[in-house]
Amino acid sequence: MLRLNTLAVVVRDEKKAAKWYHEKLGLQVKDRYPHWHTVVSKGSKTRIHLCPDSKPEKGNTGIAFLADNVAKEEKALRKKGVKITMPTRKEEWGTYLMFADPDGNEFYVFGD
Q: pTM for this structure?
């Protein structure tokens, strides 16, 4: 079962934005990477992914789901006829896939 994981927000400077979300809204800075940060409100598991300003990727909604097992989720989605636009990939920072809805809007699925 997919669970909402992150929502992307495009910002000019992810470090300054993370500081603002922390100081002004009380959100906790969860992840700090050279090109993006995430913040989360207390008690929530859904993070806001602060993305530095860049050209938008066609179709990418900036919405990510979480699955316990990405490869297993890919198989289940394919079985249901969901279009997989990026098969399961393992990177140093995690495992993910991407799928599209009927209108071409793409979503990430992160997990193990």
A: 0.74
